[in-house]
């Protein structure tokens, strides 16, 4: 940085000052700090005290935040006013600003603001308007950035969730052609021995058969042992190769006995046909289950984003919570989810996509707090004409000194790059400012709860 010789005429290029008389602009010539920076030179660093309003004459200031790397999050261009403004509560810079091109600026220190507005009274209303526009734009940009980051996290998780059933379906499809060909060949061989009517009779024994419950692997293992013992008793070749398929399909010794009674001396051909047929059915079942899972995930995405629906409508809070839980399934592994829903809760007039962002931020924070082990608690209720959603966790709790600051923009306890500090600020804006609701926090070790109350009538929302 080097001092710049004042150039009074150039102050008319600043949009805020363009129509002011030279007599008023003389104050900036006299009291402002005129500076010049080379391209790439640091104008201010993250954490530096914000102590001056900046008028940009040439070049621009490009601001980057630590968590965004090389991404430029803000630009102050020639003719614009940046830095601290009167009435602003900004105390320090949240990013690092560097000169792009040759930068020429005029700084007005904070301690001279009152004198500046006394000397140029027309500035007060203009600065209030500028401050309002800046707050609105910064809020919009920060909310959009947080939404994009949340979308990125959800997309990564959704890709993982979709990959599992898609991979399973692909593997099953690859084996299905071979299994069907084998089943057709075995059917032809068996038909030569027992006839078409005999094959149909054998197939009839499979109708009441159901696989054992997936939640009871011990029962399935016991069934495989029983089938293996039956096959060995009947001197069937390679019983170890047949028993798993039969057990997976729920075919037990009693079913095998019935088939053996009808196969009239062709037990080997019957069992080979049975194994090939059941294997094909199992692969078809895997494809059906995988594609059903994919369809459910796609449905959750549509519900979560309120695709093809109006932004403001009567929304089902339970549907939004469930679609959010589905979208965050990858983050909830290892956690127990306890639901306590008031099913009679009426629909709420709301922006469904925004509310789902609230649930996403709160559930993600809860999951992070528990570190992969614990209980996520979700409760809904009706209280004094409002719908209440409570999201809690069994984590360590929020310390008192942190609790006082969690609503502050950019405050985060997460490691650099893992949190923007905007999540709870956006939650508060969506609940309070956009929906006319309330949000409360209660926290103790093992029991942290965010309680959101939303109006049940459109008149109560903004």
Describe the protein.
The chain has 462 residues and is of the alpha+beta class. 48% of the residues lie in helices and 20% in strands. The protein contains eleven helices and 14 strands. The chain has helices at 22-31, 113-119, 123-204, 217-233, 239-249, 253-262, 267-305, 317-327, 352-370, 400-403, 423-434; strands at 2-3, 33-37, 42-44, 52-64, 74-77, 81-83, 96-109, 312-315, 335-340, 348-351, 374-383, 386-393, 438-444, 447-455. Strands 1, 2, 3, 4, 5, 6 and 7 form a seven-stranded antiparallel beta sheet that branches. A five-stranded mixed beta sheet has the order 9-11-12-14-13, with helices on one face. The protein has a two-stranded antiparallel ribbon with strand order 8-10. Helix 8 (317-327) crosses helix 9 (352-370). It is elongated, with a radius of gyration of 34 Å. The protein starts with a strand and ends in a 7-residue tail after the last strand. 28% of the residues are buried.
Write the layout of secondary structure elements.
Blueprint: E1 2-3, H1 22-31, E2 33-37, E3 42-44, E4 52-64, E5 74-77, E6 81-83, E7 96-109, H2 113-119, H3 123-204, H4 217-233, H5 239-249, H6 253-262, H7 267-305, E8 312-315, H8 317-327, E9 335-340, E10 348-351, H9 352-370, E11 374-383, E12 386-393, H10 400-403, H11 423-434, E13 438-444, E14 447-455
Parallel strand pairs: 9-11
Antiparallel strand pairs: 1-2, 2-7, 3-7, 4-5, 4-6, 4-7, 8-10, 11-12, 12-14, 13-14
